[in-house]
Design a protein that fits this description.
CATH class: Mainly Alpha
Largest sheet: 2 strands, antiparallel
Bound molecules: heme C
CATH superfamily: Cytochrome c-like domain
Number of domains: 1
Number of helices: 9
Strand content: under 5%
Oligomer: single chain
Radius of gyration: 19 Å
Order of helices and strands: HHEEHHHHHHH
Shape: globular
Structural class: mainly alpha
CATH architecture: Orthogonal Bundle
Strand order of the largest sheet: 1-2
Length: 149
């Protein structure tokens, strides 16, 4: 026991640690990525040009249809209740449009690199599946729909 304890101490000193080592605060994680991860998510996930304007002229009703046809509905309720993932009620108050866009386009990157998405994965324990949303024809409508929530 004494040997194990001192081994742990040694590992801790050289920075490996003996406990789960993924609990670094969000600021540290963001800082480690060279300031590329902000409130809108990692800039490595490239968004369509002029996305805000596209969302402004998009159709929330079509977005709601896509919520059903693209499979979002299997994991997200429209009220605040949890299904596999969080309910969409108030989602646009929790995240920027750019963050939601990145989550929809590349959830597998977001849960690895974005502090807020990592936290969600920690709480919901299931990684969101990439629904292969078309960034030009589908994404703006989905975002207009999410913005209305
Ligand atoms: C297989 C289940 C699943 C599907 C399908 C899915 N999601 Fe998710 N989604 C999740 C989970 C779980 C989370 C929480 C983060 C995580 O664990 O990856 C999440 C998180 C989100 C968030 C952040 C929610 C919040 O309240 O913070 C948004 C926005 C989102 N998803 C949008 C969508 C959209 C739009 C679709 C359809 C194109 C979709 N998701 C399809 C499971 C899913």
């Amino acid at each position: 026991m004494r040997t194990l304890a001192s081994l742990c101490l040694t590992l801790a000193v050289i920075g490996a640690g003996c406990a789960k080592n993924d609990t670094a605060p969000a600021e540290v994680v963001a800082g480690a990525a060279g300031g590329e991860v902000g409130p809108d998510g990692p800039t490595s996930i490239v968004l369509p040009d002029g996305l805000d304007a596209k969302v402004a002229s998009a159709d929330a009703k079509k977005g709601e249809e896509l919520y059903a046809s693209k499979g979002c509905k299997a994991c997200h309720n429209l009220d605040g209740t949890k299904l596999v993932g969080p309910g969409f009620d108030g989602v646009s108050k929790r995240h920027s449009v750019a963050w939601m866009a990145r989550m929809v386009l590349k959830p597998e990157v977001m849960v690895k690199e974005d502090p807020a998405a990592k936290k969600l994965l920690g709480a919901y324990m299931t990684p969101m599946a990439n629904q292969m949303v078309n960034p030009e024809t589908e994404l703006p409508n989905i975002l207009a729909f999410l913005k209305s929530k």
